[in-house]
Amino acid sequence: MKNIPEIKLFGTAACHKTTFYKTWLDQTKLPHHFLDVAENEVHLETLRNLYESRKGHFPTITIGKKKLRNPKPEELQKWINKLIPEILEITHDKEKQRFTLAINDEIAKVDYQIRDNKMYLMHSEVPYNLRGQGIGKVLVEKTFEQLTKEGYTTVAICSYIKSVAAKSEKWKTKIAY
Prior knowledge:
9 strands; elongated; alpha+beta; 2 domains; Glutaredoxin; 4-stranded mixed beta sheet; 32% helix; Aminopeptidase
């Protein structure tokens, strides 16, 4: 996976909550760093700089620029899904002729039509509150991957889908537009 924001866990090895988050993050198999604030003064200072009060609140998890202090597992998962959509699975709904990427309670989609044994990618859509975060590109690239697995000849009609294909070394010669 590329473009994954840096994930850091600030805490101490002796803290049961920190241990919980470390285990949780290990299970995601996402690259992350554990920064023990009791063992390393630089880590403690970095943590303090995250808060206006300059207190060393831990456990704190940062995902790129997003800061989460002692989040509930559901909240942490929602932020992981939103900030790292590459980990999500795409779904192909042949009945509705669409590919979907479920991001928490939101659905990003690519609609298509099949004519003359070709799949025409007609429209892509990312929910308004998720736009501008790279989710559309991930959606389209995952759609291309799935189409390749399923053996479809594909024609991009949607201008955004065309743009993603044209800018990609991998897809610009494989997707017609």
